[in-house]
Specification:
Largest sheet: 10 strands, mixed
Shape: globular
CATH superfamily of the largest domain: Alkaline Phosphatase, subunit A
CATH class of the largest domain: Alpha Beta
Distance between the termini: 36 Å
Strand order of the largest sheet: 6-5-4-3-7-1-8-9-2-10
Number of helices: 12
Oligomer: single chain
Radius of gyration: 21 Å
Helix content: 25-40%
Strand content: 15-25%
Length: 454
């Protein structure tokens, strides 16, 4: 929503401010900007079906369910990649992962392919430029080495770990700014939640942007035994029981954070966003995920379709939004919501979903694209484009390094009629199939050009 855009016309600006102040529940002077705090929470490998409100109580997520009830639930929300590092790079930059240079997973084996290019602006950079205190608590998976760590990408404060360096949730290395500590007396998820709350307390009197990057429920699967036993007693295998235990503990920490915001009087001054970087990881046994096709690593719905909640108490009415959004939209949306000044010539792939928060029409990209394979991108593998209800998908082939182009043709699904991607309609709608085929391949050429250029 536009607020105080016409600062040179004082009378009109004043009227706009009064109107929007009533809507947002703010009282202040006409020259004040809307500067809500922002907390961006990301789970790791958590699927839609892991929310208790969507799985008929298989798991225990009362606080996330409350957040979902109190905020805007985006029923058609997508990550930008079916794996961790590229999805996070896209979220931070508002660009497709390939444009960021961060396209694969192993920070140690492929450091140049798992870092955000130097010179790209992150959403943390922009918050920082606009006077916000910025912090990241938890996982960093978008680059190591000089110039590529979180303190180089707009975050004033970092308390967390690198994505490759987690052996167990009970014994782990934790980095505070540039110092490394070994933690053996806490559980990682609790540690992240506690440090996040300390950040909020520290910056309670100034605007802040806090990114909480949980590891749960990513490998290595581990949780307090009593929590695991609770779910095993309900009939779940050990892996599923452990995942649900990990999610329950993360949910508890989110609840403690929300309580602290209210205690500090920040509840109505803070926008809270929750999502997951991608769908559930494949395990030896299946766990419920709304019967969606595919898992993490794949560009089917099970790998891309993620939970997404936006809550701003007193400003946004709770409702469900059925418009399609993607991680590329987070950056431009926060810029609009918080009225942030941005560098000139900043060309983003995403659009702003802010009008949707207020039940208004928005202008968003018509086409959404995805592609991932391990190592250097090969765009005939595991790629997709969505246009309205239609989705064209190059099939997932392998989780290993790809050595050649695939000769498999893409399939095309209508997600409104077939959310489980079972029926290929490419032959029935040949013209649309050809159009999406051409658009996906053209997009691939464009983002690959940006990926390899200096």
């Amino acid at each position: 929503m536009e607020i105080l855009r016409q600062e040179t016309i004082k009378y009109v600006a004043c009227l706009i401010f009064v109107a929007t102040s009533v809507l947002y529940g703010f009282v202040g002077q006409a020259q004040d900007k809307v500067t809500p705090n922002v907390i961006l929470i990301l789970a790791d490998d958590m699927g839609l079906g892991d929310l208790s409100s969507l799985n008929n109580g298989l798991s225990k997520t009362p606080n996330l369910d409350q957040l979902k009830s109190d905020g805007v639930w985006f029923s058609q929300a997508y990550t930008s990649a079916p794996v961790c590092a590229p999805a996070r790079a896209s979220m931070l930059t508002g660009l497709y992962p390939h444009r960021t240079g961060c396209v694969t997973l192993n920070l140690k084996r492929f450091p140049e392919l798992t870092r955000i290019k130097e010179g790209l602006v992150t959403v943390a950079d922009v918050f920082n430029m606009n006077g916000y205190a910025t912090g990241l608590v938890g996982k960093w998976h978008c680059g190591i080495g000089d110039g590529y760590g979180p303190l180089d990408r707009g975050f004033d404060e970092f308390e967390g770990y690198h994505g490759f360096n987690l052996k167990t949730y009970f014994d782990y290395e934790f980095i505070v700014q540039d110092s490394v500590f070994q933690v053996t007396d806490n559980y990682l998820t609790d540690d992240i939640s506690e440090r996040a709350i300390k950040f909020v307390r520290k910056h309670r009197d100034e605007p802040f942007f806090l990114h909480i990057a949980h590891s749960a429920p990513h490998l290595p699967l581990s949780a307090p035994q009593n929590k695991i036993d609770y779910y095993k007693a309900k009939g779940f295998d050990t892996n599923t029981a452990t995942v649900y235990a990990m999610i329950e503990i993360m949910d508890r920490g989110i609840g403690e954070l929300m309580s602290e915001l209210k205690h500090l009087g920040l509840d109505r001054k803070t926008v809270v966003i929750f999502s997951s970087d991608n769908g559930p990881a494949p395990m030896s046994t299946e766990r419920f995920n709304l019967d969606l096709k595919g898992k993490k690593y794949t560009v089917y719905e099970g790998g891309l379709h993620v939970p997404f909640i936006v809550r701003w108490a007193g400003a946004i009415e709770a409702h469900t939004c059925n418009e399609t959004i993607q991680f590329t939209d987070i950056f431009p949306s926060l810029v609009e919501l918080c009225e942030l000044e941005i560098p000139s010539k900043l060309d983003l792939d995403g659009g702003s979903f802010i009008p949707y928060l207020f039940r208004e029409a928005g202008e968003m990209p018509e086409y959404r694209f995805w592609q991932w394979n391990r190592g250097v991108p090969e765009y005939s593998h595991n790629a997709a484009v969505r246009f309205g209800d239609w989705k064209l998908v190059y099939p997932y082939v392998s989780n290993g390094i790809i050595f050649s182009a695939s000769d498999s043709l893409p399939a095309m699904y209508n997600l409104k009629d077939d959310p489980f991607e079972q029926y290929d309609l490419s032959q029935k709608h040949q013209r649309l199939y050809e159009d999406l085929f051409v658009r996906l391949n053209q997009w691939a050429k464009e983002v690959e050009y940006d990926r390899i250029k200096d």
